Amino acid sequence: MKKQNIYSFLISILSLIFGSFIINSGVVSNSYKTVILQIGIYLIASLSLNFTLGYLGEFTLGHAGFLAAGAYTYALLLKNGVNFLIAIIISAVVSCLIGCITGVLSSRLRGDYLAIASLGISEIIRIIIVNIEIFGGPKGLKSIPKYSNFLLIYSFVVLSFTVFKLIINSKHGRTIIAIREDEIAVKSLGISTRKYKILAFCVSAFFAGISGALWAGNQGILTPGEFGFMKSVEILVMVILGGIGSMTGSVISTSLLVAFPVIFQIFIPNMNKYRMVIYALILILVMIFRPSGIMGKKEFRFNKLKNPGGSENE
Amino acid sequence: MSNYVLECYNLNLLFKNHHAVKDFNLQVEKGKTYGLIGPNGAGKTTVLNLLTRVYKQNLGDIFINGKNTRKWDSTQINRHGIARTFQNIRLFKEMTVLENTMVGFHNNQKYSLFDSIFRTPKYFSEEKKIKNKSLELLSIFGMENKADCLSKNLSYGAQRMVEILRALATDPSILLLDEPAAGMNSSETMNLFEVINKIKNKFEISFIIIEHNMNFIMKICDYIYVLNRGETIAKGKPEEIQKNKEVETAYLGGQYAENK
Ligand SMILES: Nc1ncnc2c1ncn2[C@@H]1O[C@H](COP(=O)(O)OP(=O)(O)OP(=O)(O)O)[C@@H](O)[C@H]1O
Ligand SMILES: [Mg+2]
Questions:
Q1: Which of A48, A49, A278, B229 has its CA 20 to 30 A from that of B82?
Q2: Which residues of chain A have pLDDT under 50?
Q3: φ, ψ of residue A181 in degrees (nearest 5)
């Protein structure tokens, strides 16, 4: 392992412990605590969407479907007494299987058609949830044990960030980015683009499922309405604002967008009602003034702050 | 068993009601170079697209090493030994030259997603292997100093070169080049000429080259096929083609006379 990687690993572990300590010490007010936990959950969702949108280059509108699959699987398992860690893993696998279907579709459908098909998949999931008794129907599921604490959520944030980074810097990631750049060229090099598209969607959905599971374990209640089209759009806005294809960009924009309504609540009451309106406005402004998002395709690095203009390569 | 690496018989392709390729026949011998020439819209690129299954022929058969390609897609075509470049360059623009070349080597790089995520020793050894292979390939063509450049920042000629190297990385027995010298200045064209000769000597590869630069194509090819409106109007050795009257009126005497 490179020295730098060991440092990042140690820093992550220390911040997890330190953060967990601060949160539990009662210094942070409850409303801020909620925001911090939400940021973590949304981070996993937006990082996973960025993987298929920014790196694979496939535009989908059904990311909330993966979250729903994860959340409901988790809730049912916990209600039946399954250990929460095992439940998270199983939720991720269930979501991963649905991701696999989206992956197969993405190798057959182009552009807009995939966006519509993925929206279709997420709607089907929602309809299944609403209409099947064990999922609680339209009323949803209540009294899900709340295991999602700071340490759990942010450990998965670090895990997902790390796994995406590791994949991106490997043959698999190179192929996935190459497919974004030029799919016909990738095929001409004897590489099965289908295999890599399915792989990308599986990994993405796997983590989206975890995000959903953590969501369920954070809220304690689930209603099918939460995982509609607007949830997908919300996550999409986070990715686009941060920069499609920049993981650190997603981190920055997700934190801003989740924290923003709560912070402004102090000045404007009922801010949460207007959240989607503001998101839509932000999206339009970004599209006009900075279509590549905050970070573009670049990644944020501390050593770049110290010597701007320094080399891109480490 | 035939001794041709690639054969095609009576290829026909219709775009709606436009007959883009008519009864095209070609047999490629190992290590030989074939030129495809003809005026714009003659159907040259379409022939390459048929050979690589980007388009599917309406009629006719293509064999690679005696095997019919009818059921294959372009991925399988490459795995059976045919690599190509594109008329409108298709590099991975946001990736470096080295990464572009490495993707070419991916098929003989054997490690799984598990190895990627857990950074197993296999990951490191395989990554190192193809990185070295890619650098070696780049250095054969004097491009090792460009390894870390983003490919979109290269000059047009250099981009064409990287595309050829990337195709070569898949270890083909036949290389199809679509207008490799287009947009190159005369020194770049000279360099390309040497590169192709180098590849011929080093790897024993057959070439099919589409090119509008007559000097270039006549010097580099063993056989030339002339297409016009989808039809093969002449084929033969370069010196025969240069003497052919029909070719001259259809093509050489026309808009490309200045290249002669
Ligand atoms: N996808 C397509 N759909 C419809 N018509 C096409 C398509 N691709 C090519 N054609 C037509 O087929 C004919 C042959 O095109 P092709 O690209 O093979 O020509 P070419 O010989 O490569 O010409 P150039 O020297 O300009 O590259 C042209 O008339 C072109 O308009
Ligand atoms: Mg052409």
A1: B229
A2: 307-314
A3: -70, -45
What does the alpha-carbon distance between residue A62 and residue A212 come to, in Å, rounded to a whole number? Answer: 13
pLDDT at B259: 45
- In this structure, chain B runs to a length of 260
User: Which ligand is the nearest neighbour of the Cα of B212?
Assistant: 1
What is the residue-wise DSSP string for A194-248? HHHHHHHHHHHHHHHHHHHHHHHHHHS-B-GGGGSHHHHHHHHHHHHHH-TT-HH
Find the residues whose C-beta lies inside 6 A of ligand 1. B 15, 18, 20, 38, 40-46, 87
Q: Is A134 left (phi over 0), alpha (psi -120 to 50) or beta?
A: alpha
- Check if A186 contacts B (Cβ < 8 Å): yes
Is there a contact between A184 and B94 if contact means CB atoms under 8 Å apart? no
Give, as one character, the DSSP assignment of residue A86: H
Within 192-251 of A, beta carbons closer than 8 Å to B belong to 192-193, 199, 203
For ligand 2, an ion, list residues with CB under 5 A: B 45, 87
A307 φ, ψ to 5°?
Answer: -125, 85
Amino acid in the structure at residue A276: M
| pLDDT for position A311 | 37
> For residue B35, is it left (φ>0), alpha (ψ between -120 and 50) or beta?
beta
Tens digits of per-residue pLDDT, A197-253? 999 999 999 999 999 999 999 999 999 888 999 999 999 999 999 999 999 999 999
Token pair, residue A92, equals 């991720």
DSSP-derived pairing of the beta strands B59-64 and B223-228: unpaired
Please, what is the Cα angle at A272 between A226 and A280, to 5 degrees? 80
pLDDT more than 90, % of chain B: 81
